[in-house]
From TrEMBL:
Protein name per Swiss-Prot or TrEMBL: DNA-(apurinic or apyrimidinic site) lyase
The protein's Enzyme Commission number: 4.2.99.18
InterPro entries named in the record: DNA_glycosylase (IPR011257), HhH-GPD_domain (IPR003265), HhH_base_excis_C (IPR023170), OGG_N (IPR012904), Oxidative_DNA_repair_enzyme (IPR052054)
Family: Belongs to the type-1 OGG1 family.
CDD domains: ENDO3c
Upper taxonomic lineage: Eukaryota, Sar, Alveolata, Apicomplexa, Aconoidasida
Originating organism: Theileria annulata
Length: 299
């Protein structure tokens, strides 16, 4: 078990079977944008002020740090390993059952709420590779430099995600030059609001119900229903919420017969969420993640 105060050349075993945690399904499939694949089932990424290296072996997950504190507890929380996910298979369509069984090892990543919020504001009308580039530019220009490390003969500069104080230094014009486009104004205004309210306002949403959480988040510039649901699910512990994008809309139509218009109305959005909650209950967000990841991998 890793308890070193600093980086280590030794690999540690998280001691979780792949049926419970399978990193290849999680780290670069749209929940988080901090990880980079550097080899076969091998990733590097920054959590807080530590640089982690993760490998998926034939039966477990290995980890170590390239910089900063090495904490098994941090990874345990990040991968939400204190929670067991389950659904009522008697209420799930047969193809959905098959996908859930085939994609065992999907987890709901529990990220820092501020980083998650800015990440999903960047996700609007975007794709995973471009979102990742945007966030890397934000970190490189406004975050704290952590380390330069070589992994598999490739050298990387690692930066922490900027704090509210650090990101407040960014003007909309600077953000636009980094390629963020119209999202620049949203990020600038949201950071100003969070600076005024304090980050405790954001973190306190973990203690609210899902509807209250969504209402609070959608009061921020650039945060609509889907972004609010992503932040709620991936950083605030609201495992019953179902973010809906074009992938999930198609899935809901195919598997649950939920037909929607070209423009997704609020009632259609809610009907899709209800379809997931009918068989997955409080784990509807996890069921959504499994089906979403399956569709992304296939495409």
């Amino acid at each position: 078990m890793c308890s070193d105060p600093g980086p280590s050349t030794k690999w540690f075993d998280l001691r979780v079977p792949l049926t419970v945690l399978r990193p290849e399904l999680l780290l670069t499939t749209g929940q988080s944008f901090t990880w980079k694949c550097v080899g076969n089932k091998h990733w590097v990424g920054v959590l807080g002020s530590s640089v982690y290296e993760i490998k998926q072996s034939d039966d477990t997950t290995l980890y170590r740090t390239l910089f900063g504190k090495c904490s098994r507890e941090r990874l345990w929380d990040y991968f939400d390993l204190d929670n067991e996910y389950s659904v009522d298979f008697t209420k799930a369509p047969k193809p959905v059952k098959q996908i859930i069984k085939r994609r065992s090892g999907v987890r709901i990543l529990q990220q820092d709420p501020f980083e998650c919020l800015i990440s999903f504001i960047c996700s609007s009308n975007n794709n995973i590779s471009r979102i990742t580039r945007m966030l890397n530019e934000i970190k490189r220009n406004f975050g704290t430099f952590l380390a330069k490390s070589e992994v598999n003969n490739e050298t990387f500069d690692f930066y922490a995600f900027p704090s509210v104080d650090q990101l407040r230094k960014a003007t909309p014009e600077q953000l636009k030059k980094l390629g963020l486009g119209y999202r620049s104004d949203f990020i600038f205004k949201t950071v100003e609001i969070l600076n005024s309210r304090g980050l405790n306002w954001l973190y306190s949403l973990r203690n609210e119900d899902s509807d209250t959480c969504k209402s609070a988040l959608t009061s921020l510039p650039g945060v609509g229903r889907k972004v609010a649901d992503c932040v709620s699910l991936f950083s605030l512990g609201k495992r019953d919420v179902v973010p809906v994008d074009v992938h999930i809309q198609k899935i809901a139509n195919t598997f649950f017969g939920v037909k929607c218009g070209k423009s997704l109305s609020d009632s259609d959005y809610e009907r899709i969420g209800t379809a997931f909650r009918n068989f997955a209950g409080d784990n509807a967000g996890w069921a959504q993640a499994v089906l979403f990841i399956d569709s992304v991998i296939k495409s």
